[in-house]
Amino acid sequence: QVQLVESGGGLVQAGGSLRPSCAASGRTFSRYAMGWFRQAPGNEREFVAGTAWRGLSTYYTDYADSVKGRFTISRDIAKNGVYLQMNGMKPEDTAVYYCAAAGGPSSDSRGPYAYWGQGTQVTVSS
After folding, report:
1. How far apart are CA 40 and CA 62, in angstroms?
2. Which of 1, 100, 109, 110 is the most exposed place for a label (fewest CB within 10 A)?
3. Can you tell me the distance from the alpha carbon of 118 to that of 96, in angstroms, rounded to the nearest whole number?
4. Distance CA 71, CA 62 (A)
5. How confident is residue 46, by pLDDT bands cut at 50, 70 and 90?
6. Residue 4: strand pairing partners
């Protein structure tokens, strides 16, 4: 049974940093695309960042325009997951952040994704 568990959300002031992480179990995801999405109240879930395997130990990373240059997605091999380094945070980054993993070996960092975590709340105060 595949499980994705996020941690590391919280409250931060504008300009600050957070690093939520995602630990996966039930399958090895090193060759599967994994990503982060977020959903703010009243909004649809949106893509934030993704990483897809390109062979050997190379991964492609992809970001939404709204977070490019501020957020960095990286693989966490020990946790069989990913983490998201978020710097220069803004109040508009406030949302529930979800980790996602593809259902099979894939090269598309934006999905489709078959597995989802329960989400972690990130709140940025102005």
Report:
1. 21
2. 1
3. 9
4. 10
5. very high
6. 24
Six token digits for residue 69: 């240059």
Q: How distant is the alpha carbon of residue 30 from its chain centre?
A: 15
Residue 33, token pair as written in the block: 């695309």
Are the CB atoms for 21 and 6 separated by under 8 Å? yes
Instruction: Report the C-alpha dihedral over residues 89, 92, 93, 96, rounded to 10 degrees.
Output: 150
∠ CA 107-97-113 to the nearest 5 degrees? 30
Strand partners, 73: 84
Q: In the block, which residue shows the tokens 């600050």? A: 16
Other Cβ atoms closer than 10 A to 46: 12
Which amino acid is it at 108?
D
When the pLDDT of each residue in the chain is averaged and rounded to a whole number, the result is 95
- 63-88: pLDDT as tens digits: 999 999 999 999 998 889 999 999 99
